[in-house]
Amino acid sequence: MDRDEEFSAYVAQRRPQLYRTAVLLCGDAHRAEDVVQTALAKLYAAWPRVRRADSVDAYARRAVVNTHLDETRRPWRRERSFATGDLDRRAPAGLGVEETDALWTALRALPAGQRRVVVLRHYWGLSVEETAADLGISTGTVKSQTSDALARLRSTLTLVDNGGEPR
After folding, report:
1. In 3D, which of 132, 166, 121, 154 has the Cα closest to residue 21?
2. Which of 20, 27, 30, 51 has a CA that sits 20 to 30 A from residue 76's CA?
3. Tens-digit pLDDT profile for residues 54-101
4. Residue 164, exposed/middle/buried by CB under 10 A (0-12, 13-18, 19+)?
């Protein structure tokens, strides 16, 4: 199999998960498309080296996270506010429309660092060490960000369940 066929096969298999990750990080389906496309272009350029790596998925995840970080550092990106309708709102199994809306609102309200940690730990199922390596932060930071994010999500979602407004 040549480089293009091998890369195309990888993208066909993993692109949906990379896109969902980008949506969770960005909170915007259109930006997520841009992030994934840019990350895949970087991945393709490095493919000869990447395919020999221990984990191609880890490299791809890191490319998506780093591309998202690069995008958030651009001043014109910070000026844009994102409408609720921009999110890819597929419901997790067993959740209704209201619960899904509350979950998306709560996730979007998390600070970017906490949201990245939650996505990698709980969507991708990475260990603390793998998350730290992907984000280039310490394991202690991963633990504290996860703890703070889950406490905030728990508090926000409990308020919604009790008829209050999310903070």
Report:
1. 121
2. 20
3. 889 989 999 999 998 888 776 655 444 444 444 444 555 566 777 777
4. exposed
The two structure tokens encoding residue 15: 């692109």
What CATH architecture is 1-88? Orthogonal Bundle (1.10)
Question: What pTM was computed for the model?
Answer: 0.63
How long is the chain?
167
Listed in sequence order, the residues at least 6 apart from 40 whose beta carbon sits closer than 8 Å to its beta carbon are 11, 15, 18, 63
Q: Look at the domain 94-167 and name its fold.
A: Arc Repressor Mutant, subunit A (1.10.10)
Q: How many angstroms separate the CA atoms of 64 and 166, rounded?
A: 29
Query: CA-to-CA distance for 96 and 66, rounded, in angstroms?
Result: 33
User: Residue 135: CB partners within 8 Å, gap ≥ 6?
Assistant: 65, 116, 117, 120, 142
- What's the angle, vertex CA 106, arms to CA 98 and CA 79, rounded to 5? 115
